[in-house]
């Protein structure tokens, strides 16, 4: 009997994944001046032994102003690079997953408190910084205006993304995902909710796509040709209930994905929302998979499906039915860091366990795990 589609290999350029399971990037708000700490050793160490084929490091800022919070990870300095190198040196010898990084800039959502500290903007007088964005319009009406980026400042941010990609390559990372979602800078350029410019970077769809495409081109040029590069998008702003407010739509996303495909994009990670506190999201199991399905069908790029995918049967169905090519999960792995092991065992397949843990295999699954594991990187 053939393996379930969830456990069939998948190739992205020269990177071959042993299965279709991906750990999404998850902000930890535990860095110091952008540099990874011992928390990241523990966090990423567990996730790279989870049974997923690919684990993404959290949204990683390409400059200091691009951090969401003072505790967010960065890859903009030699100190940041050295700290992440130490983390990778600790976890790689024991990891069964390939490791990628999501490069990001928070835009107008920068200079915020950590979620458990209230998640509100930190004023400059209180140690924060002025967020940078396509336009002055803040995320919340009661927040200070953002700094509207000048053309030469956009060019510097493009260069920052490229430099971060070169740092990622020096660290030996396997894949990069660009964060064009969740109301952060690149999504802000795309969406008319946040982009009120009247120059070459605003107005028409082509103009609003200009900055994100410039970033993609710069990163693709800086990143080795054999390594894959993908993009996370917000496929909808979820503002259909406000028809008088122009917003980013699934039709726009399809057009953007087609442009990315022409430039050598290797996958689209289909998320949604985040641009406005007024969004209304119909949340439920697999609630974003219809975005992935349409992008996959109309653009012809590999697509990562996300959004309250929590059960192996649900993930298997999403791939088997052609709705996406890979599935990514975040909270499910925080709750159950052995999700991939359990999914494999329930499918009658051996998972990759460190030998120190083999004695923990339940008796019912012992014959399965006695077989040679097929999921090692």
Describe the overall structure.
- The protein has helices at 38-47, 78-91, 151-170, 185-190, 205-222, 250-262, 289-299, 312-320, 331-335, 339-346, 366-369, and strands spanning 10-12, 15-17, 21-23, 54-61, 98-104, 132-133, 147-148, 175-180, 229-234, 267-271, 303-305, 326-329.
- It has 377 residues and is an alpha/beta fold.
- It has an 8-stranded parallel beta barrel, surrounded by 5 helices.
- The protein is globular, with a radius of gyration of 20 Å.
Summarize the structure.
By secondary structure, the protein is of the alpha/beta class. It has helices at 38-47, 78-91, 151-170, 185-190, 205-222, 250-262, 289-299, 312-320, 331-335, 339-346, 366-369, and strands spanning 10-12, 15-17, 21-23, 54-61, 98-104, 132-133, 147-148, 175-180, 229-234, 267-271, 303-305, 326-329.
Instruction: State the end-to-end CA separation.
Output: 23 Å
How many structural domains are formed by the residues? Answer: 1
**CATH architecture tag:** Alpha-Beta Barrel
Give average pLDDT, whole number: 95
Main beta-sheet annotation: 8 strands, parallel, barrel
CATH class: Alpha Beta
The percentage of residues in β strands lies in 5-15%
Spell the H/E element sequence: EEEHEHEEEHEHHEHEHEHEHHH
Give a count of the beta strands, DSSP E runs of length 2 or more: 12
Assign an overall shape: globular
- Unreliable spans are 372-376
**Helix fraction bin:** 25-40%
* Alpha-beta classification: alpha/beta
- The spatial strand order of the largest sheet comes to 3-4-5-8-9-10-11-12
Rg (C-alpha, Å): 20 Å
What is the count of helical runs?
11
CATH topology title: TIM Barrel
């Amino acid at each position: 009997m053939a393996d379930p589609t969830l456990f069939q290999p998948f190739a992205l350029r020269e990177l071959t994944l042993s299965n279709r399971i991906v750990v999404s990037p998850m902000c930890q708000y535990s860095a110091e001046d952008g540099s990874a700490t011992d928390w990241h050793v523990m966090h990423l160490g567990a996730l790279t032994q989870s049974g997923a084929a690919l684990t993404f490091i959290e949204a990683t800022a390409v400059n200091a102003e691009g951090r969401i919070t003072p505790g967010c990870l960065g890859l903009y300095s030699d100190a940041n690079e050295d700290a992440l190198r130490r983390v990778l040196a600790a976890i790689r010898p024991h990891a069964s997953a390939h490791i990628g990084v999501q490069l990001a800039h928070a835009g107008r959502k920068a200079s915020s408190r950590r979620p458990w500290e209230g998640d509100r903007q930190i004023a400059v007088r209180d140690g924060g910084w002025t967020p940078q964005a396509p336009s002055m319009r803040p995320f919340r009406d009661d927040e200070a205006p953002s700094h509207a980026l000048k053309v030469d400042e956009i060019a510097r941010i493009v260069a920052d993304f490229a430099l971060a990609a070169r740092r990622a390559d020096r660290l030996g990372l396997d894949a990069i995902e660009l964060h064009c979602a969740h109301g952060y800078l690149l999504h802000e350029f795309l969406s008319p909710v946040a982009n009120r410019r009247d120059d070459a970077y605003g107005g028409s769809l082509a103009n609003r796509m200009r900055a994100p495409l410039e970033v993609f081109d710069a990163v693709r040029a800086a990143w080795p040709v054999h390594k894959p590069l993908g993009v996370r998008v917000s496929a909808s702003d979820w503002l259909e209930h406000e028809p008088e407010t122009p917003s980013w739509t699934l039709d726009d996303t399809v057009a953007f994905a087609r442009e990315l495909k022409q430039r050598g994009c290797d996958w689209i990670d289909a998320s949604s929302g985040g641009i406005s506190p007024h969004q209304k999201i119909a949340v439920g199991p697999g609630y974003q998979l219809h975005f992935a399905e349409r992008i996959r069908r109309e653009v012809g790029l590999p697509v990562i499906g996300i959004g309250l995918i929590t059960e192996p049967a649900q993930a298997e169905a999403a791939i088997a039915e052609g709705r996406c090519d890979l599935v990514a999960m975040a909270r499910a792995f925080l709750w159950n860091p052995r999700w991939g092991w359990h999914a494999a065992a329930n499918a009658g397949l051996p998972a990759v366990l460190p030998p120190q843990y083999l004695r923990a295999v339940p008796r019912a699954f012992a014959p399965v795990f006695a077989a040679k594991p097929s999921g090692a990187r």
